[in-house]
């Protein structure tokens, strides 16, 4: 059932012929409400909020009313029938991502897909096939940290990405064992569902793709407490320390990059410290910025200009494949080569 709302978005939308991008959102869960929807509000001059779809009709109508969508619906496939929809943002539980992304591409839409891209290699291959069939469409995955202001500043300061040593420390926080996040069929586990963020960040900082990954965990914690080592094709090496055992008083994320007699430290995406050739540069912010606004700005600019996606799709393939190989390394106790197409 399609519900027409009170016209809030229509009153703010541009007249026919406007260059604004017609946006549809699938999913009105926690992440959409805490990150995506507040960020979308900042782009009223660029976009029209046309449709919102959520399986729970009450949640769909509540979020659509609050943020000013023109229509809401419980079946996302109704959105795909509307030729005026330019771009679909997908923010559902992880097991639905690949299928929905493929459906949106096949319907001729630009796609913004919250991570992960896929839950397994079979899904990944199907998404890659659909993407290859629609190369004219912008396709982004929600790896926002590479777009964070402090990440961009770090890349500018470090300049030459070759031969870097990168460490990402993540005070991930405890997630109950019965949470959907741990469910292999729904959330895919913490590596596929969250560690992917830091794999992508390492790729963004090093300007390289991974070649080998090795992971070890504590004896009883599965994917909750890990140390991961990644070798990059350009010679850089990175570690991800991911733990659920810490106290929340410790800031959640810290990134350290060592490169050619310089070092750059990003502390929880609120402060940056850089030292190189005896000179120091510092940047502090009162608010945490993990890059959501910059990420959406890059998406909308690419669609409006008819240009290329801000991130090469090949990087998404490798990020996703690395997460699968991390779980394989945990299972076998052996390093895993990262190769695409996968053998």
Instruction: Indicate the percent of residues in helices.
Output: 25-40%
> What is the percentage of strand-forming residues?
25-35%
User: What is the radius of gyration?
Assistant: 20 Å
Order of helices and strands: EHEHEHEHEHEHEHEHEEEEEEEHHE
Q: Ends: how far apart? A: 44 Å
- State the total count of DSSP E strands: 16
Rounded mean pLDDT is 90
Structure classification: alpha/beta
How many helices? 10
What does this structure look like?
This protein is an alpha/beta fold and 343 residues long. The protein has ten helices and 16 strands. The protein has a nine-stranded mixed beta sheet with strand order 15-14-13-12-8-11-10-9-16, covered by helices on one side. A seven-stranded mixed beta sheet has the order 1-4-3-2-5-6-7, with helices on both faces. α5 links the parallel β5 and β6. α5 runs parallel beside α6 and α8 packs across α10.
What characteristics describe this protein?
single chain; about 350 residues; alpha/beta; 9-stranded mixed β-sheet; 7-stranded mixed β-sheet; 10 helices; about 35% helix
Q: What's the short story on this structure?
A:
By secondary structure, the protein is an alpha/beta fold. It contains ten helices and 16 strands.
Question: How are the elements arranged and paired?
Answer:
Blueprint: E1 2-4, H1 8-12, E2 21-26, H2 30-40, E3 47-53, H3 57-67, E4 71-73, H4 77-80, E5 87-90, H5 97-106, E6 110-113, H6 121-133, E7 139-141, H7 149-158, E8 165-171, H8 189-206, E9 210-217, E10 225-232, E11 237-243, E12 253-259, E13 262-267, E14 271-276, E15 279-284, H9 292-305, H10 313-332, E16 336-337
Parallel strand pairs: 2-3, 2-5, 3-4, 5-6, 6-7, 8-11
Antiparallel strand pairs: 1-4, 8-12, 9-10, 9-16, 10-11, 12-13, 13-14, 14-15
Helix pairs in contact: 5-6, 8-10
């Amino acid at each position: 059932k399609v519900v027409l709302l009170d016209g809030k978005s229509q009153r703010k939308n541009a007249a026919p012929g406007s260059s604004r991008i017609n946006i549809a959102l699938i999913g009105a869960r926690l992440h959409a409400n805490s990150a995506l929807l507040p960020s979308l509000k900042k782009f009223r001059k660029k976009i029209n909020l046309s449709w919102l779809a959520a399986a729970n009709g009450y949640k769909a109508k509540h979020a659509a009313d609050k943020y000013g969508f023109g229509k809401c619906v419980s079946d996302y496939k109704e959105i795909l029938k509307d030729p005026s929809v330019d771009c679909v943002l997908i923010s559902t539980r992880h097991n639905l991502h690949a299928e929905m992304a493929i459906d949106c591409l096949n319907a001729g839409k630009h796609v913004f897909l919250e991570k992960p891209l896929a839950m397994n290699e079979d899904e990944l291959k199907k998404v890659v096939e659909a993407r290859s069939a629609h190369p004219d469409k912008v396709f982004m995955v929600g790896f926002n940290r590479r777009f964070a202001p402090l990440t961009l500043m770090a890349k500018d300061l470090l300049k030459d990405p070759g031969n870097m040593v990168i460490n990402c420390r993540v005070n991930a926080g405890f997630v109950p064992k019965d949470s959907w996040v741990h469910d292999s069929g729904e959330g895919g586990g913490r590596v596929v569902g969250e560690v992917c963020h830091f794999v992508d960040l390492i790729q963004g900082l090093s300007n390289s793709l991974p070649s080998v990954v090795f992971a070890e965990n504590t004896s009883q914690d599965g994917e909750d407490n890990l140390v991961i080592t990644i070798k990059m094709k350009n010679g850089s090496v990175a570690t991800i320390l991911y733990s659920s055992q810490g106290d929340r008083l410790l800031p959640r994320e810290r990134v350290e990059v060592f490169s050619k007699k310089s070092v750059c430290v990003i502390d929880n995406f609120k402060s940056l410290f850089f030292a190189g050739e005896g000179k120091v540069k510092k940047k502090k912010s009162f608010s945490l910025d993990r890059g959501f606004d910059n990420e959406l700005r890059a998406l909308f600019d690419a669609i409006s200009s008819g240009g290329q996606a801000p991130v090469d799709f090949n990087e998404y393939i490798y990020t996703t494949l690395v997460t699968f190989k991390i779980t394989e390394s945990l299972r076998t106790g052996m390093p895993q080569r990262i190769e695409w197409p996968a053998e």
